[in-house]
TrEMBL record:
Cellular component aspect of the GO annotation: membrane
Protein name: Multidrug transporter
Protein family membership: Belongs to the EamA transporter family.
Domain EamA span(s) in chain numbering: 13-145, 157-293
Domain of life: Bacteria
Membrane topology: Multi-pass membrane protein
Organism expressing this protein natively: Acetobacterium bakii
Keyword entries, A-Z: Membrane, Transmembrane, Transmembrane helix
Protein localization: Membrane
Pfam families per UniProt: EamA (PF00892)
Segments traversing the membrane: 12-36, 42-61, 73-89, 101-121, 130-148, 154-172, 193-210, 222-243, 255-273, 279-300
PANTHER family: EAMA DOMAIN-CONTAINING PROTEIN, INNER MEMBRANE TRANSPORTER
Keyword Transmembrane belongs to the record: yes
């Protein structure tokens, strides 16, 4: 009985950690939109992860000693996929295709995660409920993204980049589950991932417009928003997401990604005073139903 209660408590903590991560990630579009007035996408990305890395070092300065070289490779791959590739591909995709396209396509990441888990993780089996939930959620996300007015236009380059971004996040989710099995401190592992992500990001600064004009942060609005992205969306959320993946598994945690468009719409109503149309309202309902269906009867065994 104690073991069962402990498992339920761990599951609850895992769900809360995933929900907190998604709640913050779903609101980052406001901060990014504000910062884009004076910063390029690569500048925002680089500065936020620098802040995130420095924050984690201050919170837990103890150096991580990796036991095996193979584990170091996993950390490097996680930094490349979850920090460098995911965000760069997403940002570049937005320059070629509509934001609504990217919003829908990115949300197929849980599907990629589920497929990869079948090959690389043990004990994360699926049943038809996962796929039924996926169909419901994606249908809802379509309605939310296009809000009953926009049309889905295929832009091969941008849409393909968005697909690759979703795949990169799926790879990161699988690697996060692997990292969780190493038994290291979550803050230390996240810090390691950030370090590799920034390392792989450095060469890209040569190909994208980037300026070291820190004086722009003298504007309190810009300073607040970059701190929100660095402290909240990066330092905090990557740690809580890692914690969630450790407790729930890669696939079950990734299902929460369906919530991002819902949170984005609600945030837009609160912050930007936008209105929710009937179509968007139906989309929110379908997305939440898809989340519940996917979560309800997916069979997981927490082992690797």
């Amino acid at each position: 009985m104690v073991g069962a209660a402990g498992t339920r408590d761990n599951n609850t903590l895992g769900h809360l950690a995933a929900l907190l991560s998604i709640l913050i990630w779903g609101t980052t579009f406001v901060s990014t939109k504000i910062l884009l007035q004076s910063f390029t996408p690569i500048e925002i990305l680089f500065f936020r992860f620098i802040i995130g890395l420095l924050t984690l070092i201050l919170i837990y300065p103890r150096r991580l000693k990796v036991n095996l070289r193979s584990q170091e490779i996993v950390f490097a791959a996680a930094g490349l996929s979850g920090v460098t590739l995911y965000y760069l591909l997403e940002n570049v995709a937005l320059s070629y295709t509509m934001a609504s396209n990217v919003g829908v396509i990115i949300c197929i990441a849980p599907f990629f995660t589920a497929i990869l888990a079948q090959f690389f993780l043990k004990g994360e089996s699926l049943n038809p409920n996962f796929f039924l939930g996926f169909i419901l959620a994606i249908s809802g996300i379509f309605l939310i993204s296009f809000n009953g007015t926009a049309t889905f236009e295929l832009n091969p380059i941008g849409d393909l980049l968005a697909v690759l971004a979703a795949f990169a996040w799926a790879v990161y989710s699988i690697l996060t589950r692997k990292i969780a099995s190493f038994g290291y401190n979550a803050i230390q592992t996240t810090r390691r991932v950030f370090s590799y992500g920034l390392l792989f990001m450095l060469p890209t600064l040569l190909f994208f417009p980037f300026k070291w004009e820190l004086g722009r942060f003298a504007n309190p609005i810009y300073l607040f928003n970059i701190l929100f992205l660095g402290l909240g969306a990066s330092a905090l959320c990557f740690v809580t997401w890692s914690f969630s993946v450790r407790l729930l598994g890669a696939v079950k945690s990734s299902i929460y990604i369906y919530m991002v468009p819902v949170i984005t719409v609600v945030t837009a109503v609160i912050v930007l005073h936008e209105k929710i149309t009937g179509m968007a309202g139906l989309g929110i309902l379908l997305t939440l139903m898809g989340l519940m269906v996917s979560e309800s009867k997916v069979a997981f065994k927490q082992k690797i």
